[in-house]
């Protein structure tokens, strides 16, 4: 049967091709316009070797019969073009479309384009899968590829077909998805010729269904479905010349699903087993695998009785002379087959019986049939014509023994046959040839029956009692075959392919028409090739099969007579032909090709006869399996029935057996094929076409001749033809506009009507309206139109590029010219300068030589003179300097004394003058007053005369003039006094400076005297040294000559020794360094190895734990099912013990949490009882941040921890009081300023009512200004003191922090805190006294202004108004008042500025205090490392906030009481003035002290009388445990665990349920009740499991009990008594350790539960973020329009989110970026918002974890796992998405990832290595952006160290240029990358990252500092049955 396939050349494209060789460019309706056939246009021309080859037009084609093209090798070829341009060569697609995932996306759809695209994808990109519309084309790579793992399966799960790269899993996913959504049966039709990979494709499809549709019960039907594959491969597959694992039968596997879409069962139907292979194999082929597996396992004890040998020993296995397959171990395959048989229900006896039958078949083949029918030697005619078997033939004996039959009887019937006539029955011997044929027929029939029995058993095992909802069928059937000699098998195979092709054509046509109807476009009926006439020729009445059955029923029918009937009856069919040179052959024109069949052997194969006597011997034997095989209903008839139903017949079995042989193979095959077609028509089909690339089985070798034959045969080109006949290219309006916007003008763009804009673009460039159609949401294009638009777009972009290049090149040329011009000028300048410098250099050298000679001569003469002169000058300089410095110092002292005397004397004179002037003014006032009165009396007398009036007027004028002059003089005098005052201030400052200078000079003078003394001593020593030096020099000159030679020799020796020493030192150093490095490296390797082993062990344990929980879940589900079925055997409730407690995988849903803090009400801190007056405010403390920072574990021990907490609270109180004191000082300062302004206004009014002279006003204003200056000085001093106080506080805090950090033992830290507290208390008292004094000073300032008049005039104030000058002085005073008001405004503004500065300073001090308080809070947070200390801090926060509220209320009441007292004083004064009782003399009535409780709240008293004493309750000593009754356990668990709500838990102490449970455990340990503690712990564990299972969808509940489980685990460790866990305990905690029980086993159980809950949290988070990863990381476009889209085919890539709702409406209106009212995210289904959604989801999860008090280390581990999952999902999708692998998308991906890195930094998780998990996807984004030239190989490999070699090569292979201007990746670069990456050590062999990988979780020990005796139970928990002991 093995023969080479006939190879033909493709048909020429000059005419419309037949269906067997479609050349679509020959269709007249779809010919491209002649205008595109220009010079340089790329076309395809036929080639005898490669089928098609590329060429370019030499000249423009304008019409005619000849077209000239140039091939790649430069040869010019002339092609003939017939009329109507039928012979025009097909055009090539643009480079941007080469390598597309879907062949229908090609612009030019024809055979060469399809062939070349498949070649590029297969050879260049190593992509074996390609879409062709609805068909998946799979090319056999003949190499194992890492693209079929479970990670790939889950990657394709939920992805629409076309979204990821083509794959068999994508087809399977589409079928499974349609089964889910549409509830329709599905089918996957896998076809192809032998060696194309049909079996592997079908196996992978079933693996996909078994993985994603796996049932949750223990039956594991999906494993059984997969286990059927190795069994069927063993008994139905064999090695052929084309395939090492070729399926020699067809099968249709139905996988059944229930309502939940889980696999419930399966069934299998087989077709046309190649039985002839059992007895004959061609050269290079093998028999079925099972025979070789048995021979390989012959040494097994199980098979010792089968008498097997090597496979070359048996006739049925050695004919092909190829007994082994490279890379296949038959022994290992036998073990796999046995495992599969056991899994599918084959018992050991059944397996052994089956092996005995198979071994018997092998021995039957070795039975030697000899010529001659008489073994005794008698010579007669019968003996000469007959045959016999030797009695000593051991194989016959073994065959009989294995079959359990009589050897003589079977030996007789192997050589004879019985003939039944109408009258008698007689036996006729057979010739040796006939006997061998009968033997082979028996072997074939036995094997076929065994094959059918195995299929029946498999079907029975895969059957399910559960009702089948729907099924998915996988058809693995042979493809179209044609050989040199074609027989009955090829006829049946091609007949089946005709039926399948007809169904395929109808389905493709139906889908195409439905698409057009859906889009409501005008379309014409698409004509496709209908092969129904060919089918009618085969199966109709009087057709080929009918005539064959008729001839088989004829007694003397022969193959030749049947052929003659065919020539006579079938000549009328167009698809039937008679060969010219043969009378026994006939030709059928199939859809794929014309096949010539040889009629020889048709009748025998159709009859499939076996000698009845041989069958009777086997049937009557003792072998039960044989009896079952030959007595049951025929398998062929069973295959005709509907699966699941049994046909019951009343006829006896023997009759059925006799009828079986009357049915021909052809009729059986026709009926089964008809049933198969009915099944397929009732399902939704999916097609996979397998292609064999070459006949040599070479890895990734592509033979275009073989490929094009299979493409024509499998119907791929028919799909292309149907697509090309319609509108193959489809674009949405928005995608078309974004791609071809460059072809449209801005004025033609209508953003609110994309359909209209697209119409404008198309009408402008495509004149023929038939070339495109406008649908509801898409534009449909004819073949070639997209390429034409791409050409126009490229030309437009090229024009733009040329314009830009012109400008840029001009600018570069100008820049280069200017640069060269400048360079030439610079060179000239430097050359001329160099020449000039050389000339000057020589001149200078000549001049320098003369000068040197002159100076040398002079120097020789002056040398002696200068020596003497220098000595004399040195002595003179020293002496004169000393005298000058002394004189200068004396002069400075005198000058300073004079200055001091001058200033002091001036100050004394001015003081004396001021006092004298004041006295003189007073005297003058008195005298002038007296003279004025006397003058007034005199004037009154003279006023009566006219002359007096005249004199008076004249005197008044003079007086006015004199007064004006006086005013001017006073003004000048005032200015002079101001200058003097300023000078006085300057003199004072200078005086201070002089004093400081004087002190400095005194110190320097003393220093100078000491230095002079030292100088004198140095001079004496210098003179002595000079004398000694002269002697030494003389001695030196004498010794130099003697030692010179010795020194030279010693130096040489020393040099040699040094060199040798250096060499030795260097060697020693290198050896030391190398040894250290080796030791360090070895230590690091050992450490890494141990850590890796530990992680692996932990990970393996956690995986086993996960599997254990899954198995328990399955067990519980089975128990529930049994309970529902009412099984009476399982009586009573299932009791769970500690070891069999079941768990389930947990998925949780997030719940919204309240933002407000309810506080914690469960811990009564000791600080509240000892410090009742403390009111610390710690609102600014970030308790969540404390958990992230690990603090020193050994902060305090014993009672020191309690004392330190109290002192810290007091210190916080002190800081708060200082802050409040600053606020009060600020308020008092403002009040003082307001009082001062009021006093100033009162003073101005008083001054306006009196008459004061200029000098008096100056005398009065001077003290006020002095007071103001003094006040300002005091304020500045006060601010300085506050700054000093702040610095002291800062130093104190630093000291506290150091003390805490050093972790001193004992109470040293507490002592230091107490000392600082005492110092701060004393400082506070002093500050309060200063505040009182400051308030008194500010109040006294207001009295100074009012007392000016009383100080000046005393009791004689009334004399001012005595004379008549008051009116005149009043006017002058007005002017003075206005001037004073101006000065007052200036001073007020200065005060405001000063006040603002003071406020800013106070704000700064407040910020410093806040910062110091935060530092203090951080110091508090750095102490503990356990959750319990955080709990204590939460409790401190609550208590201090309550105390602060009370303190604020107390301050408000104190302020109100102060106001009341002030009002009382005012009322008492008024009452006293009216003569009433003085209330101030009555002693104050004070209320008795109100006692306070332990929380600091005041307790009400009954009366205020002193008669009732206050009774204080004595504090109780608690032991830190809760007492309970064992019968209350259920109630406690219900209230504490089952009914506890997460919102209520947030208001309690974190981990409070765990503390309560542990305190109950302590009580059981205290009373030593073993049963009680066991019952409590078991109930607790079961309750936690119950609540997790019950509320597994509540994320808050899951996290809550993760926290409490870990807290209970830590408490059990901390109080276990183990020294390893007691290092951080206090003495009290060590006393509270468990004494009687060892709960280490329960700790392990709790740890396992925590791991289980943690895994549930991880699973929940991954499910939450899974749908966001791809839109957020890969599809999110930060810059809209940057990523260009390429033309899409009829299967456009589906987005991750549905776009139809946002892209277009019923009218075709769409929106684009920039449209008002349209968000960018609405254009792409929300992908623009997906990144923010992902970040928001992560932030929400992080917030919820922190609110529930999860350990920061555990949060880091959780998000490390989540970020690994995000990276794996994104990278896997990126590698499977060809449309995302380009430069622009790499930039966008890196930008999106930067947001995740920023999120990690914001949440302070750098230490957990969360961001490092994103390195693979980051490097992938860098790889997309990197240059890809041969020079960048090294840099790319170094950059992508986190990516495996498969991943790097995959990304480079799928890298696609998004535009014509982007360069493609050269193949040489990829090859060099592969070679470079092969040198990587221990590289991963997987393509995708494992999304299911999980890091082992660690729960670090976190002890608690919470005192158990302080824990109280809140009333909200409703646990009154717990009694605190």
Task: Summarize the biggest pleated sheet.
Answer: 7 strands, mixed
Quaternary arrangement of the chains shown?
single chain
Order of strands, main sheet, comes to: 5-6-20-7-16-10-11
Mean pLDDT: 75
* N/C terminus separation: 94 Å
Poorly predicted runs are: 1-30, 633-661, 1127-1207, 1243-1263, 1355-1363, 1422-1427, 1477-1514, 1692-1727
Rg over CA atoms, rounded to whole Å, is 55 Å
Counting DSSP H or I runs of 4 or more residues, the number of helices is: 51
Shape: elongated
Q: What does this entry look like structurally?
A:
- It is a single chain.
- The protein starts with 41 loop residues before the first strand and ends with a strand.
- 59% of the residues lie in helices and 6% in strands.
- The protein contains 51 helices and 25 strands.
- The strands form eight sheets. The chain has a seven-stranded mixed β-sheet, with helices on both faces. Strands 1-2-3-4 form a four-stranded antiparallel β-sheet. A three-stranded antiparallel β-sheet has the order 17-18-19.
- The N terminus is likely disordered.
- With 1925 residues, the protein is α+β, with helices and mostly antiparallel strands.
- The longest helix has 179 residues.
Provide a brief overview of the structure:
With 1925 residues, the chain is an alpha+beta fold.
Labels describing this entry:
1925 residues, 25 strands, four-stranded antiparallel sheet, disordered N terminus, alpha+beta
């Amino acid at each position: 049967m093995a023969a080479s396939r006939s190879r033909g050349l493709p048909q020429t494209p000059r005419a419309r091709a037949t269906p067997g060789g479609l050349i679509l460019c020959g269709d007249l309706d779809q010919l491209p316009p002649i205008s595109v056939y220009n010079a340089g246009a790329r076309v395809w021309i036929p080639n005898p070797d490669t089928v098609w080859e590329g060429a370019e037009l030499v000249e423009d084609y304008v019409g005619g019969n000849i077209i000239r093209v140039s091939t790649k090798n430069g040869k010019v070829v002339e092609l003939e073009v017939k009329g109507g341009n039928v012979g025009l060569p097909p055009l090539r697609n643009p480079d941007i479309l080469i390598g597309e995932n879907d062949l229908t996306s090609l612009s030019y759809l024809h055979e060469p384009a399809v062939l070349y695209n498949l070649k590029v994808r297969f050879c260049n990109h190593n992509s074996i899968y390609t879409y062709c519309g609805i068909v998946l084309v799979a090319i056999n790579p003949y190499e194992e590829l890492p693209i079929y793992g479970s990670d790939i399966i889950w990657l394709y799960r939920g992805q629409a077909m076309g979204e990821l790269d083509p794959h068999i899993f994508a087809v399977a996913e589409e079928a499974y998805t349609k089964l889910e959504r549409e509830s329709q049966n599905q089918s996957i039709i896998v076809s192809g010729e032998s060696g194309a990979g049909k079996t592997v494709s079908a196996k992978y499809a079933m693996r996909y269904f078994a993985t994603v549709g796996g049932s949750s019960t223990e039956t594991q039907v999906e494993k059984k479905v997969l286990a059927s594959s190795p069994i069927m491969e063993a008994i139905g597959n064999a090695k052929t010349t084309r395939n090492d694992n070729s399926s020699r039968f067809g099968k249709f596997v139905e996988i059944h699903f229930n309502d939940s879409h889980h696999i419930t069962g399966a069934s299998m139907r087989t077709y046309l087993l190649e039985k002839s292979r059992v007895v004959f194999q061609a050269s290079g082929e093998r028999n079925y695998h099972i025979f070789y597996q048995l021979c390989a396992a012959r040494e097994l004890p199980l098979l010792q009785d089968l008498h097997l040998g090597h496979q070359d020993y048996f006739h049925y296995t050695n004919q092909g002379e190829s007994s082994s397959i490279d890379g296949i171990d038959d022994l290992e395959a036998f073990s796999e087959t046995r495992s599969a048989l056991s899994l599918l229900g084959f018992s050991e006896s059944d397996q052994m019986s089956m092996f005995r039958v198979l071994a018997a078949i092998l021995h039957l083949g070795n039975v030697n049939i000899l010529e001659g029918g008489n073994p005794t030697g008698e010579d007669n005619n019968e003996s000469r014509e007959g045959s016999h078997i030797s009695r000593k033939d051991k194989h016959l004996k073994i065959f009989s023994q294995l079959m359990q039959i009589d050897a003589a009887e079977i030996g007789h019937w192997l050589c004879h046959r019985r003939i039944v006539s109408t009258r008698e029955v007689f036996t006729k011997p057979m010739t040796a040839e006939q006997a061998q044929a009968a033997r082979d027929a028996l072997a074939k029939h036995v094997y076929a029956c065994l094959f059918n029995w195995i299929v029946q058993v498999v079907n029975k095992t895969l059957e399910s009692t559960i009702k089948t909802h729907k099924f998915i069928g996988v058809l693995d059937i042979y493809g179209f075959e044609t050989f040199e000699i074609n027989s009955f098998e090829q006829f049946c195979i091609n007949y089946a392919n005709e039926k399948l092709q007809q169904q395929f054509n109808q389905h493709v046509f139906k889908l195409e028409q439905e698409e057009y109807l859906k889009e409501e476009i005008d379309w014409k009926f698409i004509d496709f090739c209908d092969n129904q006439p060919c089918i009618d020729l085969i199966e109709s009445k009087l057709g080929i099969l009918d005539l064959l059955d008729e001839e088989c029923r004829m007694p003397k029918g022969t193959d030749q007579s049947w052929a003659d009937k065919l020539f006579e009856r079938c000549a009328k069919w167009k698809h039937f032909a008679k060969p010219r040179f043969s009378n026994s052959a006939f030709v059928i024109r199939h859809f794929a090709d014309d096949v010539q069949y040889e009629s020889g052997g048709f009748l025998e194969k159709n009859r499939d006869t076996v000698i009845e006597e041989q069958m009777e011997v086997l049937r009557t034997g003792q072998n039960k399996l044989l009896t079952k095989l030959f007595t049951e209903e025929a398998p062929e008839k069973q295959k005709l029935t509907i699966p699941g139903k049994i046909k019951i017949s009343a006829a006896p079995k023997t009759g059925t057996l006799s009828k079986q042989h009357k049915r021909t193979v052809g009729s059986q095959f026709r009926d089964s094929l008809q049933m198969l077609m009915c099944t397929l028509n009732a399902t939704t089909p999916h097609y996979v076409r397998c292609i064999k690339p070459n006949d040599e089985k070479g890895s990734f070798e592509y033979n275009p001749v073989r490929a094009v034959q299979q493409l024509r045969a499998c119907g791929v080109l028919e799909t292309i033809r149907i697509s090309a006949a319609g509108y193959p290219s489809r674009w949405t309006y928005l995608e078309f506009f974004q791609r071809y916007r460059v072809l449209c003008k801005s004025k033609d763009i209508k953003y609110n009507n994309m359909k209209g804009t697209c119409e404008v673009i198309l009408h402008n460039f495509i004149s023929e309206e038939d070339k495109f159609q406008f649908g509801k949401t898409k534009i449909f294009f004819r073949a070639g139109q997209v390429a034409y638009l791409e050409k126009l777009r490229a030309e437009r972009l090229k024009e733009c590029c040329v314009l830009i290049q012109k400008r840029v090149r001009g600018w570069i040329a100008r820049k280069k010219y200017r640069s060269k011009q400048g360079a030439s000028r610079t060179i000239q300048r430097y050359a001329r300068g160099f020449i000039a410098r050389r000339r000057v250099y020589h001149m200078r050298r000549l001049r320098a030589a003369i000068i040197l000679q002159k100076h040398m001569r002079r120097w020789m003469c002056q040398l002696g003179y200068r020596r003497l002169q220098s000595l004399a000058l040195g002595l003179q300089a020293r002496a004169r300097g000393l005298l000058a410095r002394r004189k200068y110092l004396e002069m400075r002292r005198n000058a300073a004394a004079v200055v001091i005397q001058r200033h002091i004397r001036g100050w004394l004179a001015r003081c004396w003058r001021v006092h004298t002037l004041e006295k003189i003014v007073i005297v003058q006032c008195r005298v002038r007053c007296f003279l004025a009165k006397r003058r007034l009396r005199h004037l009154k007398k003279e006023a009566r005369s006219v002359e007096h009036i005249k004199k008076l007027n004249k005197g008044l004028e003079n007086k006015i003039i004199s007064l004006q002059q006086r005013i001017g003089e006073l003004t000048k005098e005032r200015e002079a006094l101001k200058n003097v005052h300023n000078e006085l201030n300057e003199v004072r400052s200078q005086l201070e400076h002089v004093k400081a200078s004087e002190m400095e000079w005194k110190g320097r003078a003393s220093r100078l005297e000491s230095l002079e003394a030292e100088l004198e001593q140095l001079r004496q020593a210098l003179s002595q040294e000079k004398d000694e030096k002269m002697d030494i020099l003389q001695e030196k000159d004498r010794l130099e000559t003697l030692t010179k030679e010795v020194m030279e020799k010693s130096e040489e020796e020393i040099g040699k020794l040094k060199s040798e020493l250096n060499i030795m030192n260097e060697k020693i150093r290198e050896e030391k360094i190398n040894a250290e490095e080796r030791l360090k490296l070895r230590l690091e390797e050992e450490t890494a190895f141990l850590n890796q082993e530990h992680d692996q062990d932990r990970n393996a344990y956690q995986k086993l734990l996960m599997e254990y929980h899954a198995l328990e879940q399955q067990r519980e589900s089975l128990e529930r099912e049994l309970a529902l079925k009412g099984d009476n055997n399982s009586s009573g409730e299932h009791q769970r013990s500690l070891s069999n407690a079941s768990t389930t995988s947990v998925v949780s849903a997030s719940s919204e949490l309240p933002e407000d803090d309810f506080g914690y009400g469960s811990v009564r801190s000791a600080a509240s009882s000892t410090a009742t007056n403390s009111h610390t405010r710690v609102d600014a403390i970030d308790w969540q941040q404390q958990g992230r920072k690990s603090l020193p574990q050994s902060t305090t021990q014993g009672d020191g921890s309690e004392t330190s907490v109290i002192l810290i609270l007091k210190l916080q109180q002190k800081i708060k009081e200082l802050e409040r004191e600053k606020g009060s000082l600020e308020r008092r300062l403002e009040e003082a300023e307001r009082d001062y302004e009021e006093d100033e206004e009162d003073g101005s009014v008083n001054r306006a009512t009196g008459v004061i002279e200029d000098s008096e006003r100056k005398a009065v204003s001077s003290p006020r200004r002095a007071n103001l200056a003094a006040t300002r000085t005091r304020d500045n001093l006060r601010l300085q003191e506050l700054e000093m106080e702040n610095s002291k506080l800062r130093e104190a805090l630093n000291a506290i922090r150091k003390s805490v950090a050093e972790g001193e033992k004992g109470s040293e830290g507490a002592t230091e805190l107490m000392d600082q507290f005492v110092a701060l208390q004393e400082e506070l008292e002093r500050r309060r006294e200063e505040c009182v004094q400051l308030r008194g000073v500010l109040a006294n300032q207001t009295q100074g202004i009012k007392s000016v008049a009383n100080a000046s005039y005393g009791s004689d104030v009334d004399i001012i108004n005595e004379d008549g000058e008051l009116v005149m002085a009043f006017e002058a005073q007005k002017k003075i008042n206005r001037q004073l008001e101006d000065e007052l405004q200036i001073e007020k503004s200065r005060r405001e500025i000063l006040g603002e500065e003071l406020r800013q300073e106070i704000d700064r001090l407040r910020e410093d205090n806040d910062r110091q308080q935060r530092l203090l809070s951080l110091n508090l947070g750095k102490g503990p490392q356990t959750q319990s200390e955080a709990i204590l801090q939460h409790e401190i926060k609550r208590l201090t906030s309550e105390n602060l509220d009370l303190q604020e209320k107390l301050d408000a009441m104190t302020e109100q009481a102060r106001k009341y007292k002030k009002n009382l004083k005012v009322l008492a004064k008024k009452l006293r003035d009216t003569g009433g009782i003085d209330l101030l003399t009555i002693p104050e009535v004070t209320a008795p002290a109100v006692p306070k409780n332990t929380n600091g709240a005041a307790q009400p008293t009954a009366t205020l009388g002193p008669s009732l004493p206050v009774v204080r309750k004595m504090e109780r000593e608690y032991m830190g445990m809760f007492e309970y009754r064992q019968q209350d356990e259920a109630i406690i668990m219900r209230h504490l665990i089952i009914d506890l709500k997460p919102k209520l838990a947030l208001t309690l102490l974190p981990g409070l349920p765990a503390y309560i449970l542990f305190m109950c455990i302590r009580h059981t340990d205290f009373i030593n009740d073993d049963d009680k503690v066991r019952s409590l712990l078991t109930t607790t564990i079961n309750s936690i499991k119950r609540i997790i299972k019950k509320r597994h969808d509540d994320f808050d509940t899951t996290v809550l009990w993760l926290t409490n489980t870990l807290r209970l685990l830590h408490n059990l460790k901390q109080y276990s008594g183990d020294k390893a866990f007691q290092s951080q305990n206090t003495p009290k905690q060590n006393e509270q350790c468990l004494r009687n029980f060892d709960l280490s086993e329960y700790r392990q159980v709790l740890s396992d539960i925590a791991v289980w809950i943690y895994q549930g949290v991880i699973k929940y988070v991954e499910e939450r973020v899974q749908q966001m990863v791809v839109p957020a990381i890969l599809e999110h476009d930060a810059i809209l329009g940057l990523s260009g889209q390429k033309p899409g085919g009829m299967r456009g890539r589906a987005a991750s989110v549905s776009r139809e709702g946002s892209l277009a409406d019923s009218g075709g209106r769409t929106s684009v970026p920039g449209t008002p009212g349209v968000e960018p995210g609405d254009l792409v289904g929300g992908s623009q918002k997906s990144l923010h959604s992902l970040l928001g989801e992560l932030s929400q999860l992080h917030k919820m974890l922190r609110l529930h008090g999860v350990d920061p280390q555990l949060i880091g581990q959780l998000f490390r796992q989540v970020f690994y999952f995000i990276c794996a999902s994104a990278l896997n999708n990126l590698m499977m998405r060809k449309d995302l692998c380009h430069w622009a998308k790499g930039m966008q991906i890196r930008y999106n990832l930067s947001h995740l890195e920023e999120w990690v930094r914001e949440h302070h998780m750098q230490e957990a290595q969360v961001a490092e998990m994103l390195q693979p996807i980051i490097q992938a984004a860098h790889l997309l952006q990197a240059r890809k030239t041969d020079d960048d190989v090294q840099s790319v490999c170094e950059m992508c160290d986190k990516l495996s070699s498969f991943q790097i090569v995959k990304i480079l292979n799928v890298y696609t240029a998004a535009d014509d201007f982007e360069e493609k990746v050269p193949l040489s670069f990829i090859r060099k990358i592969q070679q470079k990456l092969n040198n990587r050590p221990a590289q991963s062999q997987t393509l995708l990252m494992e999304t299911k990988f999980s890091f082992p979780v660690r729960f670090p020990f976190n002890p608690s500092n919470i005192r158990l005796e302080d824990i109280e139970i809140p009333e909200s928990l409703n646990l009154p049955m717990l009694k605190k002991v």
